[in-house]
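Weekly structure sync, notes
Attendees: PL (lead), two postdocs, one rotation student
Agenda item 3: pending single-chain targets
PL asked that the sequence for the first pending target be pasted directly into the notes so everyone works from the same version. It is reproduced below exactly as submitted, 227 residues in total.
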Amino acid sequence: MHSEAGFQIMEDSIGLSGELLQIARYILAGGVAAVPTETVYGLLADASSLNALDQLRALKGKPSSSPVPIFVPPNLPLRSLTSDPNDILMLLEKAYWPGPLLIVCEPSGVVANLPVCRQGLVGLRKSSSRIVNNLIELTGKFITATSANRFGNRPALNEDDVKREFDASDLFIMDKPADSITADRPSTVITSEKGQLFILREGAISADEIARKLAESGFTLGIKKVG
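Predicted structure, written out during the meeting:
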């Protein structure tokens, strides 16, 4: 165990690179890090820290009212994270988690007090990225899952993109391992309400693919794209 600046990191719990340990410490100290996920570069910060979220929103140019999604630990099922675990969301969780699907839903008590929640909703993603999951384990925190770009711009796919987007910003930028980003597109964002599925953003998983998956399981509902 390594103790530094008022927090502790279990260095011997996983075989990890020194850079990952540095990033974990940076996040726990309230910083924002640009890290490759399986889709695009993300801005990762402690989702329980108001100061970290303020920094993140300032970097992206997002209004304070805008939601910030989070990565969830690999061992937590969606059922424990939402107060409305309906059949549609449970099916899509089974089909696409871990992976590039972000689910917007009503939070359970596990996450309801996090300052990322807005208007009674939270965005949840379970990542297949070993980098993201190692950082979740190292920090013991829910971590933000928003893409590394200024509001309205294209997400960054490499370190150079991040540096151009956030020139001279106080940001820890992780070098991209060769096998880290596999989709090169942001996650698909969905929500479900009253038996209807809404696609808020079509990304790495297409609307057609989701429709086929639902049809295979007997769901004949329509899908509405709203973003």
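Discussion points:
- Residues 1-15 have pLDDT under 50 and may be disordered.
- The chain has six helices and 13 strands.
Action: rotation student to compare against the earlier draft before next sync.
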